[in-house]
Amino acid sequence: MSLTRRQFGVLTAGALGSSLTRSLWAREVAAQAVPGRFYIALIADTHIIDEFYVKGSENGVEDNASILVTAPRLTAARDLINSLSPAIEQVFLLGDYFHNYPSTDYDFYFKNTTRLDNAKAITDGFRMPVHIGFGNHDYDVHRVPREMSHRLFKAKFNTSPYWAFDYKGCRFVHLNNFLGSTQDNKAVEFNPSLGSLGEEQLHWFEAQLAERKPTFVFVHYPLMSIQDVEFRDYGLHTLLRKYKYTIPLVVTGHVHKWIDFARTYGPQHYIMAATRYDPNAYMLLEIDPASGSWRFLNESLVEWSTHYSKPYTRT
Asked: What is the block-wise mean pLDDT of the chain (315 residues), using blocks of 10 residues?
């Protein structure tokens, strides 16, 4: 399937712009450099496929075209992030790491090279640690037991269904909105389009927040698509508002477009776009652990309400 002129141009800019990016990044960081600050990158919705993928099985021309170039787009984003100095120290991937399951047989994934292996091969090329969260395409709640997905993530990526990671005085939490009853195909309230965390994870999350470390929160579904209250008056939205001064930022994916929800849910909430559609769809953040503050360094390049972000190029 041929690429559009824009798609080709974006890929070309990503390939040619790395030397320009290094210079511009260094100038941007130096403009407000403060000792102790560090840099992270966020990526979402990479949707890596494999030889078992059936072409033409997406919804519409754009989706069918984009799915075929997810690997080079993630690779372009990776190479750009690797090129930056001062260096990005941690990368967080907000779900839909790969695109669906080619088999419901667990052993299939150890007898064949699949999209799981392809995704890991690309992210193994990052020069810094990559922390992976679950998206809806990393499950198949209709056909594949959630327990099988968890076994595969642990075996292939050494990743748990949800986790907290402390770094230089800050905490990074990736929640899993696929563990509650709305994602249980045996539950009366089963509704795959609505995320929920489940009581155990909600209590775990509050315990993380109760330590009052600056806590950056990542989850795949946008907050508008996650059940606000799950048990009596207890739910994710409740906790975000209760601890809004502990949480500097919430970032989600899934929608594949850049959307700024400001402080609608308490903390600042962004939906970020997908590398599936644009290799420039990453967030570069500077974090000051002393104050818990942050800067979205490539925010000026974002084309809000679209899939796209401008590449670093000379103007």
From this structure: 44 46 67 80 98 95 97 97 94 98 98 98 98 98 97 98 97 98 96 97 98 97 97 95 98 98 98 98 96 93 96 52
pLDDT tens for residues 222-233?
Answer: 999 999 999 988
Domains of the chain: 5-299 (3.60.21.10)
Cα distances (Å, whole numbers) of residue 222 to 20, 36, 140, 262, 279: 33, 31, 19, 13, 21
Tokens of 224: 């508008």
Mean pLDDT (the chain, rounded): 91
pTM: 0.91
Q: Backbone phi, then psi, for 313, in 5-degree steps?
A: -145, 165
- Whose tokens are 């690779």? That residue is 75
Could you write out the three-class secondary structure of the chain? CCCCHHHHHHHHHHHHCHHHHHHHHHHHHHHCCCCCCEEEEEECCCCECCCCCCCCCCCCHHHHHHHHHHHHHHHHHHHHHHHCCCCCCEEEECCCCECCCCCCCCCHHHHCCCHHHHHHHHHCCCCCCEEECCCHHHCCCCCCCHHHHHHHHHHHHCCCCCEEEEECCEEEEECCCECCHHHCCCCCCCCCCCEECCHHHHHHHHHHHCCCCCEEEEECCCHHHECCCCECCECHHHHHHHCCCCCCEEEEEEEECCEECCCCCCCEEEEEECCCCCCCCEEEEEEECCCCEEEECCHHHECCCCCCECCCCCC
